[in-house]
Amino acid sequence: MDQLDKIVQWFALNMNNLGTVATILAFVVSIVVLAFSAYRYVTIRRDELKDKRYGKYHQLIRDISTGSDGAGQLKLVSQRAYIYELRHFPEYSALTRRVLASLIEEWGGETGGNNATQRYEVQETLNALRGRWPCREEKVVLVTVSACTAAK
Questions:
Q1: pLDDT of 148 higher than 50
Q2: Cβ-Cβ contacts under 8 Å for 104 (sequence gap 6 or more)
Q3: H helices within the chain, ranges in order?
Q4: Mean pLDDT throughout 54-77?
Q5: Are the beta carbons of 147 and 133 closer than 8 angstroms?
Q6: Of 65, 142, 50, whose CA–CA distance to 96 is shortest?
């Protein structure tokens, strides 16, 4: 019984300190929960945006290579704009350079002013992509794409 009285007396003397500790502990726990929730939200949002960019990139590649989109045949101006937009996907730069180089070869045998305009836009996009990552070389279907020549 003597032990119980000592414990009760200690609690009575230190009640303010215990309340302060409990308040601080609750505050720290809520900050940790808030930080974890914010981290989780940012991570999920980043993954969603990455998936959306992935889909947009592949839609652009499909529309450029087929020459049409969901609405039908692409006009030359739209196709040039799509080719230009590929510059905004640096994470797919290596693939973009290979795909565009193969399109230049594919359109190379075809005659007409449209193909020359398309080839020009593809070449400009390739030059822009090479300029971002100098001194990298890749072999692309009989075509050597070299960023070192653009940097010299």
A1: no
A2: 119, 122, 123, 143
A3: 2-13, 15-66, 76-85, 93-108, 113-132, 148-151
A4: 84
A5: yes
A6: 65
What average pLDDT score do residues 62-81 get? 81
Taking CB atoms within 8 Å and a gap of at least 24, the contacts of 34-40 are none
Q: What is the separation, in whole angstroms, between the first and last Cα of the chain?
A: 91
Of residues 113 and 36, more confidence is placed in 36
Burial 93-126 (b: 16+ CB within 10 A, else e): beebbbbbbbbbeebeeeeeeebeebbebbeebb
Which tokens belong to 140? 């692309």
* pLDDT above 90: percentage of residues in the chain: 28
Higher pLDDT, 57 or 70: 57
Is residue 122 within 8 A of residue 100, CB to CB? The reply is yes
**Are the C-beta atoms of residues 74 and 68 closer than 8 Å to each other?**
yes
